[in-house]
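Ticket #259: bound-state structure for zinc ion.
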Amino acid sequence: MATYFILIDGLRPDVVPDNCPNLAALFARGASTLRARSVMPSITLPCHTSIFHSVPPQRHGVTTNTFTPFARPLPGLMDVARAAGKRCGLFYNWEQLRDINKPGSLFRSVFIDNVETMSGDDEMCDVTVPLLLADPLDFCFIYYGTTDTCGHNHGWLSPEYRAQCARVDKLVARIVATLPADGHVLVQADHGGHDRTHGTDQDADMLIPWGLAGPRVKPGYALTEPVSLLDTAPTLAYLLGLTPDPHWEGRVVREAFID
Ligand SMILES: [Zn+2]
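RESOLUTION: The complex was predicted; output attached.
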């Protein structure tokens, strides 16, 4: 049963209803919230390290966009999945994300250095879709970063930013169209943004959309319990039939599931 995890960098929840019709439709057929919370500092690499390792930056020690080896190593989601024999893929256009898993955890990794170009995510999608169709994976992480680039260049909630969110929203539909009927997809952001930046603890930076869809997920369900970035790895592990690492601090978002 294939599971996709799509992350849209710097996607604020308040643009989803007006500018992301495909994402809004996906959330409407699954379980979602527009009030999930990021971690501090609300910066891309610390957030991604927390997403995949289910511990806050204070624990993993990655507090900037420069990776530093963990003082006390723990396995991430990809590492746990690989150890259980799952075939994992990583499709991304911001190279710092290469450190979200240990070497040897991936079956397939596709990186293109194009996150500064507004057509970059489209190019990533063009490459990703045929690969997903030709050789399905158990789990894949698909990262789109141009929304964050656009936020820094033009400002969060600017017309340009909203247009870029709408552009990437179309890619969500293209990726989800490749998912088998028994597959699941989680879509979320890592952080929000304000003015031309992010990284603070204000709601504009900390609130993110988070939504899960698939046959095991309650349809049209608005999550009521708090959801954190730390809950992503345990929830995906639950979907994949994996045992969460005992060091992980997040929880399975059980409220989202029928079973
Ligand atoms: Zn950024």
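RESOLUTION NOTES: The mean pLDDT is 97.
TICKET STATUS: resolved
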